[in-house]
Amino acid sequence: MHELLYASATAFWLGILTSISPCPLATNIAAISFIGKSVEHPKRLLLTGLLYTLGRALVYAVMGALLVTSLLAVPAVSNFLQRYMNRIMGPLLILVGMVLLDLISPNIIGGRGLASRVQGRAERLGMWGALPLGMLFALSFCPISAALFFGSLLPLATKYNSVFTMPSVYGIGTALPVLAFSLLLAFGAHWVGKAFHKVSKVELWLRRATGVVFIGVGIYISILYIYLSG
User: Fold this and answer.
1) Chain-centre distance of CA 101, in angstroms?
2) Looking at residue 58, what is its pLDDT?
């Protein structure tokens, strides 16, 4: 039970780290500008933020469910994962840590251009456009978000057979800043600008700290399950 709670907390942290990384942060800024159109109506503003969060959580939940279920449904794959997951996790964490520290940089999937195109289409749907906006922004992977989702969240969910919970918690974490800034919008754009400036600075150090921890844990797991276990 404690391990599952710890894993869920890790999934939530991975979501938050994803949300404040440069590329996802750009889409979240676009989402906040979309949500900000309802600043004169606090209840509508909050509902729009919740719809955006729901959209992101739904996409990650569905993707996680499909991928985790597919992996566990195939007996050979399931047996392989049960036997070698701990050995796989170590190198994976090291690779993700290297991405977070900018030591390696995989190709970008999606990008900021997608954010502007999707935002324009969502605006025509009004408040309810926040739902598809969140869904499509969730699919706009860049190196860090792809590394965190496919390299960390997915193996974690597979290890604990968490089909919906961990991917959903991760999705909520990726939208948490949008919910927070939706509330800040009611107090004025000046506060939002200052908050984003601080987030941009903090993100770099949080990402580096997480990268160092990932590499350290990855090395420990690799030593424990690869070298010592034979």
Assistant:
1) 17
2) 93
Specify the pLDDT at position 105. Answer: 67
What is the spatial distance between Cα 176 and Cα 179, in angstroms, rounded to a whole number? 5
Task: Give the residue extent of every domain in the chain.
Answer: 2-84+104-188
Q: Nearest 5°: CA angle at 36, between 31 and 39?
A: 155
Residue keyed to tokens 């990402």 = 207
pTM, to two decimals: 0.70
Nearest to 93 by CA among 221, 228, 208, 3: 221
Phi-psi region of 41 (alpha: psi -120 to 50; beta: other; left: phi over 0): beta
Count of CB atoms situated within 10 Å of the CB of 65: 16
pLDDT at residue 208 in the model: 82
**Amino acid sitting at position 214:** F
Residue 153 near residue 166, CB atoms below 8 Å? yes
Q: Where are the alpha helices (DSSP H) in 101-188?
A: 112-123, 130-138, 143-148, 154-159, 165-185
Which pLDDT does position 19 carry in this prediction?
85
- Return the pLDDT at 212: 87
CB contact burial 119-157 (16+ within 10 A = b; e otherwise): beebeeeebebbbbbbbbbbebbbbbbbbbbbbbbbbbb
Residues of the chain with pLDDT under 50: 108-112
- The end-to-end CA distance of the chain, in Å, is 29
